[in-house]
Structure to design on (349 residues):
């Protein structure tokens, strides 16, 4: 059993701005897990907010490679549990390996992961398309460049959030959702939610910085719109705490450590009466296709990461005009494209 890593820098379709900053390209690590006959693929992007750096991911996976041939596992979940003591401090690397393990598992058994999990590929929500922060005219141009999506997620956290959304509303009847990425103040939340409800917004993601637990607990019963935790809900242990201040959680594979903990988080969230979204980073179809296998279990999906790229590096689950198209291809249904050299990050060897 062998791990191989590849590093790429993925150019974005447009510069992408959220409350914390702007990106024009996204470094990412692709993990191959091979048993000699079949190869599974996983992915983790670098991410400053979650302190996920490519050098630390590579280093931790090199350590895992040392013990990997000695481990006995038949399902990705078994492998995840065996490696969690060693890799649990690096959720992004853990997620990339877990995605690859699911892909390999399905490819070996000749079945798609959704089928191995007993899920109905027709079930589950459509994805939104995300509009980063920009001038209102540029946001309109980006929205109109992606016509026909049923839902647009609008990044917020500027003094002009409400004006922008009012303006965009005059150009589409699509559902809106809003993501403040920790960019609002507590006193803004209820007035904003009241206005946004009138504007066809279905929920507000992460209005306040993570440490505002008691503010969120006060706001939850007052807010006319559901409040969703993203930055406040990184891992399995966060779910229960989020129930006091949020109506919903946004699970991302790289935040929590992969498909295995995401499935556990979904179970816990259901027991607590929380609604569930699976989201993504700006990532290729390798990561998106792993997350998409969970679509039938979700209330909401935000899996537009590969659509935000100028160039994808893999074939996999396609997300078109909100439709997440699960296929009958084995594993996560992914394969790397050829001729990726121009996207590769040079590495010292
Ligand atoms: Mg978010």
């Amino acid at each position: 059993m062998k791990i191989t890593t590849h590093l790429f820098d993925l150019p974005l379709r447009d510069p992408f701005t959220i409350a914390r900053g702007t990106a024009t390209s996204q470094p990412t690590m692709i993990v191959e897990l091979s048993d000699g006959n079949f190869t599974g693929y996983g992915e983790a992007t670098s991410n400053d907010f979650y302190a996920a750096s490519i050098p630390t991911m590579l280093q931790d996976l090199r350590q895992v490679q040392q013990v990997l041939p000695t481990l006995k596992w038949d399902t990705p979940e078994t492998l995840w549990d065996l490696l969690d003591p060693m890799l649990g401090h690096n959720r992004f690397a853990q997620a990339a390996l877990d995605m690859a393990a699911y892909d390999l598992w399905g490819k070996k058994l000749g079945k798609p992961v959704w089928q191995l999990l007993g899920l109905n590929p027709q079930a589950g929500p459509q994805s939104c398309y995300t509009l980063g922060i920009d001038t209102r005219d540029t946001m309109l141009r980006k929205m109109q460049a992606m016509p026909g999506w049923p839902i647009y997620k609008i990044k917020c956290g500027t003094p002009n959030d409400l004006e922008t959304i009012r303006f965009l509303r005059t150009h589409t009847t699509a559902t809106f959702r809003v993501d403040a990425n920790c960019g609002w103040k507590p006193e803004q939340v209820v007035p904003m939610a009241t206005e946004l409800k009138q504007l066809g917004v279905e929920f507000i993601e992460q209005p306040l910085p993570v440490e505002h637990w008691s503010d969120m607990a006060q706001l939850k019963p007052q807010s006319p719109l559901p409040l969703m935790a993203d930055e406040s809900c990184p891992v399995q242990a966060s779910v229960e705490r989020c129930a006091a201040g949020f109506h919903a959680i946004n699970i991302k594979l790289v935040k929590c450590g992969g498909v295995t903990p995401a499935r556990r988080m979904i179970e816990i969230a259901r027991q607590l009466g929380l609604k569930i979204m699976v989201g993504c980073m700006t990532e290729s179809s390798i990561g998106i296709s792993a997350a998409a296998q969970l679509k039938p279990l979700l209330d909401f999906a935000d899996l537009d990461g590969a659509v935000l790229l100028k160039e994808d590096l893999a074939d996999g689950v396609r997300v078109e005009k909100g439709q997440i198209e699960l296929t009958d291809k084995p594993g996560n249904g992914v394969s790397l494209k050829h001729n990726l050299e121009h996207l590769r990050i040079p590495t010292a060897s």
The mean pLDDT is 97. The pocket of magnesium ion is lined by residues 179, 181, 205-206, 230, 250 (CB under 6 Å). The first strand starts at residue 2 and ends at 18.
